[in-house]
Amino acid sequence: MAQSKFSENLIRLKCTVCGRANYYTHKNKKKVERKIEYKKYCPWCRKQTAHKESKLK
Questions:
Q1: Backbone angles phi, psi at 8, to 5 degrees
Q2: Residue 15 belongs to what domain range?
Q3: 10-44 pLDDT, tens per residue?
Q4: How would you label 14-36 residue by residue, b for 16+ Cβ within 10 Å and e otherwise?
Q5: Phi and psi at residue 32, to the nearest 5°
Q6: How many of the other CB atoms lie within 10 Å of CB of 13?
Q7: Within its chain, how far is the Cα of 18 from the centroid?
Q8: What's the structural domain count of the chain?
């Protein structure tokens, strides 16, 4: 079974405070070599926190 183009670039964003994975997004791995970090709303912390890229299982 062939993998789609989109699943190759899929990354998981994990909250740095509570450690839960809340968001999934895509990343161009050829242009961006570092780990992505966004400020996003965490429903468990109930505030905006930093979300870092983590491994997809």
A1: -70, -35
A2: 5-54
A3: 999 999 999 999 999 999 989 999 999 999 999 99
A4: bbeeeeeebeeeeeeeeeeeeee
A5: -110, 110
A6: 19
A7: 14
A8: 1
Structure tokens belonging to residue 34: 């570092």
Specify the CATH number for the domain of residue 37. Answer: 2.20.28.120
Cα separations (Å) of 1 from 4, 5, 56? Answer: 10, 13, 19
Specify the pLDDT at position 3: 62
Residue type, 24: Y
pTM of the model: 0.82
d(CA 51, CA 57): 17
HEC profile of 9-21 = CEEEEEECCCCCE
